[in-house]
Amino acid sequence: MEQQLTIWIALTTVAVVIQAGILVALYVSVRKSSARMEAIMSDLHKRTAPILDSTQSIVVDSRPKIEAITDNLLAASSSIKSQVERLDATVSDAVDRTRLQIIRADDLVTRTMDRVEETTDVVHNTVISPVRQMAGLVTGLTTGIGAFFGRRAGAQREDSPQDEEMFI
Questions:
Q1: Contact 154/161 with Cβ under 8 angstroms?
Q2: CB 160 within 8 A of CB 154
Q3: DSSP character for 158?
Q4: Residue 97 — very low, low, confident or very high, per pLDDT cuts 50/70/90?
Q5: How far apart are CA 110 and CA 99, in angstroms?
Q6: What's the whole-number mean pLDDT along residues 40-64?
Q7: Residue 47 has what pLDDT?
Q8: What are phi and psi of 157, to 5 degrees?
């Protein structure tokens, strides 16, 4: 059994040595990769540093200008809002006044039409009816006088216009 124990110890030793070799190889590989990454990062930093610096200077230089633009936009927005509110109030006032004037004009036209109708009725009752009555009387008198004088004239003249009118 002693021999088996020695074999197992030898095998364990070989396994530990192999693991140590693998760990050393991993360590060397990681160091190389780390060195390459540092070189790449250093190169990347060298390339991007000027861009980042100029970008930062642009942002720093632009900040007051952007703040001024923002302040101007806020002031313009406030001014436009107040102007629109005043315009809305003016338009509303104009619409209200126009509506009131239309109502007044409608009332005026309605009253005028009522008065025209009343005046027409008054004229009809006071002027036209008596004129028609007078015209009827005058027509009746004219017809009566014409008939009275027409018979005498008709007896003297044979072809009177009344005979022709009756004939036609």
A1: no
A2: yes
A3: S
A4: very high
A5: 16
A6: 87
A7: 87
A8: -115, 140
